[in-house]
């Protein structure tokens, strides 16, 4: 296993060779704050070092993340498939940010797979795929935290400006639920202190992420908590199904359900919270947990997903009610697995 510093050196070497001119930056499907923040920060660095760059997404960036520098310029495959295909074909390097496999790039996947470009993963999820360069660290809070090391090791601390600091902080803050989970390393706080020294405008970032709600979004969250939330008291599992009809009723926009899944974890004795959303063509599951409950195992074993110990996701193609039933059925099975694994330790 190569260490992270050596992998970053490999990237430095590749970029210094003079053969890299066109850069494509790709976040994961349904981008979150960490994916958006890392794409924004890397695009700004590419801009400063005079490389041609494009951020491409298979779907859309939620409204609340569009304040980040360069994010409004991204190109969605849903709007401009031909342009995305051309840019991917012409790219010399493709950065895969905040995901560990091309499979998390949705409709872009086949084009990325056949591109001539080198592929570089910068990510903090377990078990990354083998790619040309893999800069992966599962101990950090977020991809943005890792990206800071990449940027400063290659280009030095002075390249970090206010925009980069804001973007990296947005990723660190959102991926840790506001420095709640996955954020017990002193290094994370030293990094935030450095970002403040380099121009981070914390109030600006907080205002845009947490204080730009629409009333309809609050109503959707309120309705789900009041009328949809059910708690399995025996195991401490909270379940919230949200139907397509409800999304339409409350004029859902991408990102409107962000953060909702964390709220039931504030209930005493609830250790797992699951949000199940009926999307256009599939059912999306979001898992969150407290302590050492490995919800990524639950998502992986029964719901075609994965993720981190305390934050994971999955998807199903069956009807919403069937997914809810399956989730309920797998509660005792999952906790049995957890107990067996505990005993083995
Ligand atoms: P979210 O619930 O916010 O969509 O996702 C939580 C975490 O689980 C994220 O770190 C995300 O990368 C991961 N995740 C979400 N959906 C999937 C999925 O379908 N497959 C895998 N492998 N990971 C997922
Ligand atoms: Mn992340």
Automatic annotation (TrEMBL):
User: Which Gene Ontology molecular-function terms are recorded?
Assistant: nucleic acid binding
Q: Which InterPro entries match?
A: DDH_dom (IPR001667), DHH_sf (IPR038763), DHHA1_dom (IPR003156), Oligoribo/pAp-PDE_c-di-AMP_PDE (IPR051319)
Pfam families, sorted: DHH, DHHA1
Task: Please list the residue ranges annotated as the DDH domain.
Answer: 22-172
Residue intervals of the DHHA1 domain? 251-325
Q: What is this protein called?
A: Bifunctional oligoribonuclease/PAP phosphatase NrnA
